[in-house]
Design brief:
Layout lengths: L7 E5 L2 E10 L3 H4 L1 H4 L1 H7 L3 E2 L10 E3 L7 E2 L2 E5 L3 E6 L2 E10 L2 E10 L5 H19 L17 H12 L2
Antiparallel strand pairs: 1-2, 2-9, 3-4, 4-5, 6-7, 7-8, 8-9
Length: 166
C-alpha cells in the first residue's frame, strides 16, 4: 500500500469535490477497462454496476451483491479518457491522461457536504492501492466495507482529516 496522502477538497458552487491523482505504470488503454467493466470493478471498487459503464444511461450499482442498489447513471463517456457517473447522490469523474511512463488517473468525487470526505479519501486510497496491485498482476483481495479497518483505514482517515482540513 502506498503511504503518501495526496488529495484535495474544495467547494465548487456549493458542492464539495474530493480529488485524487494516482500514477500508474500502465497505458490508458490498459487502465480504462478497470473503470468500466463490472467484472474488473468488483475486484477493487466499491462501485460495482449491473452493466458496463461504457454508455450514457441508467445503471444500478452495489458495493456488495446483497446490498440495496443505488442509482449509478452514466452521465458522460469519452473512452478511454473520461467517465462521469452518479453513485447515489454523489458524482464520480474519472480521467486518464497519458504520461511518459503510463498514465495518471484523476478521480473527482462530488458530494453535498464534506462530513465524510476523510472517510471517502481513506477508502479510495485503499481501493486505488488494490487497483494498482491488480494492474501489476498481483490480484490482491478487494478491500471495501468493514474489512478496510484491518488494512490501515483508521490511520488513513485520520491523516486525510489533516490533509483536507476537516
Amino acid at each position: 500500500m502506498t503511504n503518501s496522502l495526496h488529495a484535495a477538497l474544495e467547494d465548487r458552487d456549493g458542492r464539495w469535490v474530493l480529488t485524487f491523482t494516482r500514477d500508474f505504470s500502465h497505458p490508458v488503454d490498459a487502465v480504462w477497462p478497470w473503470l468500466t467493466d463490472p467484472d474488473r470493478l468488483q475486484r477493487w471498487s466499491p462501485v460495482v454496476p449491473d452493466r458496463p459503464l461504457d454508455k450514457v444511461g441508467p445503471a444500478q450499482v452495489r458495493e456488495n451483491p446483497g446490498d440495496e442498489p443505488l442509482d449509478g447513471t452514466v452521465i458522460a463517456v469519452s473512452a478511454p479518457h473520461e467517465l462521469v457517473h452518479r453513485w447515489g447522490p454523489d458524482m464520480l469523474r474519472w480521467r486518464l491522461t497519458p504520461t511518459a511512463t503510463g498514465c495518471q488517473l484523476t478521480l473527482e468525487q462530488t458530494m453535498a457536504d464534506r462530513t465524510h470526505a476523510a472517510e471517502n479519501a481513506g477508502g479510495w486510497h485503499i481501493c486505488l492501492d488494490v487497483l494498482a496491485d491488480d494492474l501489476d498482476g498481483a490480484m490482491g483481495k478487494r478491500l471495501v466495507g468493514e474489512v478496510v479497518m484491518e488494512h490501515g483505514f483508521p490511520e488513513l482517515r485520520d491523516g486525510y482529516r489533516k490533509v483536507l482540513g476537516v
